[in-house]
Input
Amino acid sequence: LVQLVESGGGVVESGGSLRLSCAANDFGFQYYIIYWLRQRPGLGIEWVADIAADGDTTDYRDSVKGRFTISRDNAKNTAYLQMADLRSDDSAVYYCALDTSGQRRGPGTRVTVSS
Output
């Protein structure tokens, strides 16, 4: 059973950058698509980005395209979300997950973007 733990969140000014990490235990991480999800205040969980098991294919929600970059290092059992040009509406708890519903996700890391 793959277990995920996110880190790297914090408080950043509008226009700033953060890199989130998603560390997995060594139980088949390299075989899974990895999703980054987020939950903004008062809203449900939404898909942000995903990356194929081999890292060759990525996809992003429209509002983060050109600003966020998802990547992974299967040798380190870790996925990343590089976030740039952050906006106030990017403020959320960010999760990495094995599915888009978030049923199998980590505990999350909070990102707060101050304007």
In short: The first strand starts at residue 4 and ends at 7. The CA atoms of residues 34 and 98 lie 5 Å apart.
